[in-house]
Amino acid sequence: MIKVTEYDCWFQKYGSAEDTKDIAAFLEHVICEEKGIIIENAAKELRFTLSFCFGIVQKSRNAGEKQILLGTIGYLNASYGFSLPKPKKEGFVIRSTDSKIIIGGADEPGVLYGVYTFVRLLALKRFVFGADVADAPVSQVRMINHWDNLDGSVERGYAGRSLFFNDNRIEFDSNRIRDYARLLSSVGINRISINNVNVRGMAKELITEKFLPKIAELADIFRPFGIRLMLSVNFGAPQPEIGTADPLDERVLAWWKDRADSIYRYIPDLAGFLVKADSEYETGPFRYGRNHAEGAHILAKALAPHNGEVIWRCFVYNCVQDWRDTTIDRARAAFDNFKPLDGQFDDNVILQIKHGPYDFQVREPVSPLFGALEKTRYVMELQITQEYTGQQIDLCFLPWMWGDVMRFDTGYGTNADNGAIRSLLACGRIEGLAAVGNTGLAANWTGHTLAQANLFGYGRLAWNPALSPGEIADEWSRLTFPDNGGQSIAGNITKILLNSYPTYQKYNAPFGVCFMVECGHHYGPNVEGYEFSKWGTYHRADNKAIGIDRTPAGTGYTEQYAPKNAAIFANPETCPEELLLFFHRTPYDYVMKNGKTLLQNIYDTHFEGYDEVRIMLDTWRGLQELLDGAVFESVKERMERQLENARQWRDVINTYFLRRTGIGDEKGRKIYR
Ligand code: GCU
Known about the structure:
This protein is α/β, with parallel strands linked by helices. It has helices at 24-27, 37-54, 73-80, 108-123, 174-186, 212-222, 239-242, 250-266, 292-303, 333-338, 398-407, 416-419, 421-426, 452-463, 469-480, 490-507, 563-570, 580-583, 598-621, 629-661, and strands at 30-31, 67-72, 92-96, 100-105, 133-135, 141-145, 165-166, 169-170, 191-193, 228-233, 272-275, 309-313, 349-354, 377-383, 432-436, 545-546, 586-587. Alpha-D-glucopyranuronic acid binds next to loops.
């Protein structure tokens, strides 16, 4: 029976020191003589995890005994006469000699990441004594955004209440935050914004003396883990006090400077502000007739003396559209608003662009802004919390979808690979990733235990966007469900994870059409949930065809892409079929590559999606004998709900199209009328 403690996530008890016996003598002596907040914590973390995961107790060391030696490479080379090569920023090298295993970091965070990598390799039984390990993160910005409200609720949160707030107060369990910091840091996360981007009510006061001392306490917990805090701020914050938030008004600049000065007195290393402006009713520069570069500029100026940055979101679109008006295309909005401003943002402004043009749908194209911005700093925003992808009831392993995003060729390279998102990340044109977190006070952090894989996977991808979903799923499964006496279930769980996204996609909105969800809460199917609303996400299905024509003959959205992609997307023959309905208004009798009509493909995928969930549930049930009861039961309960959801999706979608077209399933399967 494999015993898993859900709370401990990917730091389980991996059995006795037996597994590590070849190097046990080294592990009993963790030595770190260098001083520094992060480096001292790295040593503490190594001692802690060795003890917690492997039962290795530190012993006092006699001269000449073996050891693990930690330090920054500069320090180690100078103090011990080594000649270790210096890795990239935040990188590390692990080298083993007869007397030492050396974990050397390019800097303090590098040592910490070296420690976690070492522990991971031990747990995966992949540490090879004598072979150097060297690694460094591909990007500098690896951020989690919490959408936590001051009252303790979490916008789009499916894992219990906030880790940071309750009842209009900052309230947290320090031990738990420390454990959270470990989880994040162990996969390389280095920034966290703690409050919702919708900064409403009392949350506007988070940047005042009323709350700053307590926020500073949080920053103190995250700091030794190499994680810097960010705060979401409301662009309109000065308005109530000085009557305006106009970014060109000197009084407004003075107001922000004053705020920044006082914030940095409490949190000297705050990474900066995260801003949602002119978006979904949040105030922004448009209210004052200014553009977004002017808006970001005022905050950038206030933060610059403190080395702070403004992360400015590009989720700006018209959310009070009239469905009758076919001239507006919401998908165009980010590019239309931000491309013309390329080059006008301050050096300490980073744009944060959602990976797709809409809003974290189960399948949408990559936003055309990636690669197109040439003189602006920017990061990509992903969503770990499963708003549209099953709300941590349904299993949906997101690194699968993110892997597709990472491989997408923007067309802004000289060949496919150097135009790919992962290559733009590698060369620094995209400066990193941000993602909306999926954690809360739930005992297992994420509601669905297997959704921990999404948090883990996000961190691993932010560290190295070239990792495949298979590698990530395999690592996570083996770390979380360790092999115990030869009873390996990790392989089964890896398979379950890897099938889960394709399955979810099959029973969801078909072929990139998006938004067939229940309005507001976004769980479960509602084919016309957004059809006659103000949000601008329509499919306009009639009895002949469905989808929006986004080619030059339609809204012209395809033209926002580099020429190569504009041509691929504009032609239904070359457009990836999973995005067919995103780009093309398509008749139901359109024949797809497998020789079947669009309609028949919609039916097939929905029958298959449901069947695959049933198989997944059966596979899970088959693990009962091997798995600890609590984990087994909690996942089973979610999978049973998922099966019901998949059934609802299958039948609602299939019935809708049967009613529209009057054409049944060619295989004669049951579709309700
Ligand atoms: C989505 C989501 C909102 C969120 C918004 C955002 O629209 O439903 O809850 O506030 O994205 O990213 O700002």
